[in-house]
Amino acid sequence: MTNGDRVHVRLLGPVELIVDGQSMPLRGPKIRALIAATALMAGRPVSTRHLHQVL
């Protein structure tokens, strides 16, 4: 990813990461959980403690 890329996270159904219109592969349940947890907290800081609990 570079500056100016548009990033979208789809949370309903399978978690998907879309960058500039292209789906990015999310391999494994932990990375999908990490993406979902940070997306749900968009615009707010996410503590390492919270991420540890999620994972």
Describe the fold and architecture.
The structure is a single chain. With 55 residues, this protein is α+β, with helices and mostly antiparallel strands. It has one domain. 35% of the residues lie in helices and 20% in strands. It contains two helices and three strands, in the order E-E-E-H-H. The chain has a three-stranded antiparallel β-sheet with strand order 1-2-3, covered by helices on one side. The longest helix has 12 residues. The N and C termini lie far apart (24 Å).
- How many independent structural domains? 1
Helix content: 25-40%
Taking all residues together, what is the mean pLDDT? 91
Q: List segments where confidence is low: pLDDT < 50 over at least 5 consecutive residues.
A: none
Q: Quick one: biggest sheet? A: 3 strands, antiparallel
Largest beta sheet: strand ordering? 1-2-3
Please work out how many helical segments DSSP would assign. 2
Order of helical and strand elements: EEEHH
Radius of gyration: 12 Å
How far the N terminus sits from the C terminus, by CA atoms, comes to 24 Å
Return the structural class.
alpha+beta
Question: How much β-strand is present in the residues?
Answer: 15-25%
Number of strands: 3
Shape: globular
Oligomer: single chain
